[in-house]
Each structure stands twice: as C-alpha cells, then as structure tokens.
Amino acid sequence: MNDFAAMSELHVLRNFYESGATRPYEFRKQQLLLLKAAVLKYEQEIYVALHTDLKKSAEEAYATESGLVLAEINLALRQLRRWMKPRRILPDLVNLPSSGRIHADPLGVVLIIAPWNYPLQLCLIPLVGAIAAGNCAVLKPSELAPATSAIIQKIISEIYPPAYIKVVEGDGSVVIPEMMQQFRFDHVFYTGSIPVGKIIYQLAAKTLTPVTLELGGKSPAIVEKDADITVSTRRIVLGKFANAGQTCVAPDYVLVHEDIAEAFTRKLVQTIQDFFGKDAQKSADYGKIINARRFDQLASYLKDGELVYGGKTDRTSLYFSPTVLKNITAGSAIMTDEIFGPVLPILTFSTTEEAAAIVRQHPDPLAFYLFTSDKVKEKTWLDQTRFGGGCVNNTVWHFANHRFPFGGIGNSGIGAYHGKHSFNTFSHEKAVMKTPLWLDPAIKYPPFKGKLKWFKRFIR
Ligand code: NAD
C-alpha cells in the first residue's frame, strides 16, 4: 500500500486514541520498553544505516543518536509515574474549600517530522515524549536519509500496531501537506529548516493545530582574550566538525579576540589534524555531506573568504574536508546563510560591543557558545544575548542533558523538548477544581446588592 492510501487510514489512529488504550501508565511503560528493546536489538542495523546515510562511525552513532534515544527512554521509564501524577493546587480564598488538580492529559494524535542530519534521534526522541504522554503518533522521517528512514519504519512496524504509531515515508513536500490537509493532528512537532518550518506553521494555522518548531540559525562561538586556547579549540573543533558540520547546534562561525586570533587559528588547525589526521577522508571519525545539492552549496562558500585550512573536496564520495576561512567578505553568503557543513569562518573583534553587534546581525541563534574565564564578561554576554540554549567554555553538549529544555527562540524555533519538557510538550495541562457540597454560601449568588465590600475582601 502506498503512503497516499495510508493517509486515509489516519482516522484509525484517532479511533485508537479515543478508545483510551494509550492512557494507562502500564501501557505507556510497555511501549517504552518495546522501543528500548528494539533499539538494542537493531543496534548493528542502525549503525549500518547511519553509516550509509552520513558515514557515521558506530561510536558517533551511539553517542549522538541511539545512545541518546536509550537515555531518553530510560529517563522516561524512571520518571513516568511521577510525571503522570496529577499535581495538587492550593485553592484561592474565593473557592475555599475546593480542591484543585492539574492533570497531564495526552494531546491525541501527533505528527512528528524529522530532518536528515541526526535522522534517528530527531525522530525517536520526540516519539519517547509522545508515548510517555499517552499519545498516538505519525512519524515522518527524512527522505534524504533513506537508510535510517527504512530502519525506523522496520522497527516501528515490528513493535507497534499502525493504529497506534505509524511511519509515513516519502517526499515531505508532498506527503506532509496531504496529511495535514486531510487530517487534523492535535500537535505537530517539526525539526528542520526555517523555510519549511514556516510552511508547516501555515498548514497548522488553518486548523489551529499547535506546533513545536525546532529550527536552525547561525550559532556563534565567541572566544574572548582570556579564553583557554587549547581547551576552546578542542571543543569548537568537536562541535563544528562532528557529522561533517551538519549539526543544528554546531558553532556556525567563530568570533575571536584579535589579540589571540593568530594563536587560536594555529591551534585550531593543529587540533583538526590531531582529531582527523592530515587527510580527513581517511578518518573513520569524519562524516560525509548528505547529498550533491548540499555539497554544491557548501562549495560555493569557499570563495567568501581566505582559505586557512582544508578546502579539499570530492563530489563523487561527497567528501568535504574540515575547512577554515578568514578575512571573510562583508555581506557574503557564508555570513547570511546557516552554513550547516564543515566550513568555519573566523572573524575577529577588538571590543565586546563590536562582537555583540556582529552577533545581533543574526538574531535568535539556536545555540550560543562563549569561551572566557572572566565572570563579568560571562554575565554581560549571557544577559545581552537572546538564544535557544548554549554553553560557557563548551559547545553542543548541552543537547545531551535531557534535564535541560532544548529548543529555540524567535527565528530558531517555538517550544522545547527532552525529558520532562517533552512530556509537557505532548501533554495538555488540564485544570480541574472540585468543590464540596456541604458549603454553599448565599454571598456567591444574586442578588449581589450590598456584597461589593465582601467581594473586595475575598478577591484581591
Ligand atoms: P528540511 O526542512 O528540508 O526537512 C525536514 C523535514 O521536513 C523532512 O522530513 C522533510 O521531508 C520535510 N519537508 C521538506 N520539505 C517540505 C515541505 N515543502 N513541506 C512539508 N514538509 C517538508 O530540513 P533539513 O534540511 O532536513 O534539516 C536542516 C535544517 O534543520 C537546518 O536548518 C538545521 O539547523 C535544522 N535542524 C534543527 C534542529 C533542532 O533541533 N532545532 C535539529 C536538526 C536540524
């Protein structure tokens, strides 16, 4: 059966949801255990798929994909009972002696749309939240990572009935509008680019469907004069060149204080060679570009600055070496686009104000990284900069701590997830007040004449 035929079956998920089957704690727990067992069972196939799509090593695939999914499931399994427990709320004066509770209600049938760069975890981590919160879900993996999309399809169809969790594959620009026009989802959780995020938002607006949008942007790494050069270069190189730079929270560009720019750049190049060797094409730890379209886009950035290191490419194998540029041409595409690949422009600054002005040209980055040993500078930067999340003296690893909410702000997204934040994203906080019958004072009912002074005493 093709995906179009499958779309007309979406109402089956609604029926399953409305049967109430997904609500009990035991059901949710069992589904999380099934997912965990399947991710473990298909560990090797997952590695093969991620290697096929993006040339990820097993180590990288575990640390940045399947391991994070397992950690997310384990956290949900440990905390689920507590998350599901209705929260007691103190009554206000007017409503005494009522009691109050906030119930975490499932949303219903949700759509999860994933991109290609971390194609497993960006599909399954939101799913963990959706299951934990008691929803049915449709998963739309990225067609640009077909091997991973296929293993997701295989796992999900093996462990879940399609009336509960369903995978829809295919060209997103066709199947997603079709689905969203034919069926009203209760929530759409989208991860991907800003332009497609806007399309999803518009489609959702037609039916007032709430959305979470996990988008991208130009995330800066600021290196102040007092930064530790050795540690900062290691952490920037790891964050920038993991997955060949195709990471939404990768440092997009570096802004380094002019006094240390030379020493920093020298160390950066040395660190790239230490990590990936003189020829990164031979490194098992270095990935490939997803497709020729992205490869050509990245190659076009090479003219936007002076080559410091790298620039070696092989279109046939989609190899694009770790590349560092300096003396960036003002207003060039490399400084307006989200680079999303292994090209690192290095810009310099002399004052914090000057650096802040450059950061403000690309408002609301998804991530922000600051390297400094100075607490005052740290506070100044954190106070003055709007960003989704980030690190001081590190890059990208905040993503892995599922106790943090992960999400953007403004241009970089709407909403957040991971751990309890995912549970909240996929739940509705239903407020319920319960009032006993034994007290029902006449003051609450008409006629109200003469009661104003009492109202003023109780309502304030
Ligand atoms: P994309 O927008 O091209 O694709 C994402 C998903 O949208 C895919 O499943 C695709 O099928 C679907 N899609 C594509 N075109 C569509 C259309 N016209 N209508 C409806 N759906 C459509 O994004 P991408 O290129 O896969 O991912 C790269 C972008 O994602 C970067 O900007 C990156 O920063 C961002 N990203 C963000 C995060 C995050 O967590 N915030 C994570 C990874 C990637």
Automatic annotation (TrEMBL):
One GO-annotated biological process of the protein: aldehyde metabolic process
Matches recorded under PROSITE patterns: ALDEHYDE_DEHYDR_CYS (PS00070), ALDEHYDE_DEHYDR_GLU (PS00687)
GO cellular component, one term: cytoplasm
Domain Aldehyde dehydrogenase: 24-432
Molecular-function annotations in GO: aldehyde dehydrogenase (NAD+) activity
Active site: 214, 248
Record has Oxidoreductase as a keyword: yes
Keyword NAD: yes
Domain of life of the organism encoding this protein: Bacteria
Keywords: NAD, Oxidoreductase
Protein name listed in UniProt: Aldehyde dehydrogenase
Family from the record: Belongs to the aldehyde dehydrogenase family.
